[in-house]
Amino acid sequence: MAAPEVKSSYAVYEFALATLLLFGVVSTVYLVFVPLAIGDVQIALAVVGMAVGVLVSGLIRSPWGRRSGAHLNPAITVALWLMGAFPGRRVVPYVVAQAAGSLTGTALAGLLWGTAATGAPVHYAVVRPGPGWDALPVALTETGCLAVLTLVVGFFLAHPTHGARLPHILGASTAVIITVLGPRSGGSTNPIRQLGPALLSGDARYLAVYLLAPVLGAGIHRLLALRRPRTFRLCPDTASPLP
């Protein structure tokens, strides 16, 4: 009877991780743009990218992350299911948990930092495209980023002896995406990164793009008919390539 109780807690861990992720993202954006008041947007986003990259890496390697697989992203959950590395019956609970964590973490950060985080210039750290970027280029960029990240995750699933490197690679990738694409497409690549901030700030103009494009990117490997990973060192009901 103990095993089902453990399995039922996987989505709870994912909720907690998503909550910590969004709380950390909103708090980092607030600290960089308000107390530190870094005026150069590119430098500010580089600082945010490095901080969030470290956070992502730490959450993946945390005890909760090892238990749930630390997907932290509905698009990654869908990609792992499509690769046969995650059971389909757990996709919906994980996605719901991640979405709930996005709202909870964003709300907690707003409560902690007050109007300085909920109002200008932070606005709950909502993602916005840069000047000249409309829905189509944003969608193409977000799709492409997730397609690449999915291939990276798939490689480590197929080569689990290298799994210890994955948290650092995903953290570094997050930092680069925020730094390079933040002033352009917004650099989200994660539906829950935008969900909570968009709903709580009331700025949902591009929400559908930021929700759907990463999921589309996560499924591109199937369109390319890439081989599914066959060897995993995983808990049977999670998908973490960590050794």
Instruction: Tell me the helix content.
Output: 55-70%
Termini distance?
26 Å
Number of helices: 12
Question: What is the 3D shape?
Answer: globular
Strand segment tally: 0
Oligomer: single chain
Ranges with pLDDT <50 over ≥5 residues? 1-6, 229-239
The major pleated sheet works out as:
none
Mean pLDDT: 88
Describe the structure.
It is a single chain. This protein is mainly alpha-helical and 243 residues long. The chain contains twelve helices and no strands. The two termini are 26 Å apart. Mean pLDDT is 88; it is low at 1-6 and 229-239.
Element layout with pairings:
Blueprint: H1 2-8, H2 10-33, H3 41-61, H4 63-68, H5 74-82, H6 91-113, H7 115-118, H8 135-158, H9 166-181, H10 191-201, H11 207-218, H12 220-223
Summarize the structure.
The chain is mainly α.
What tags apply to this protein structure?
mainly alpha; disordered N terminus; 243 residues; globular
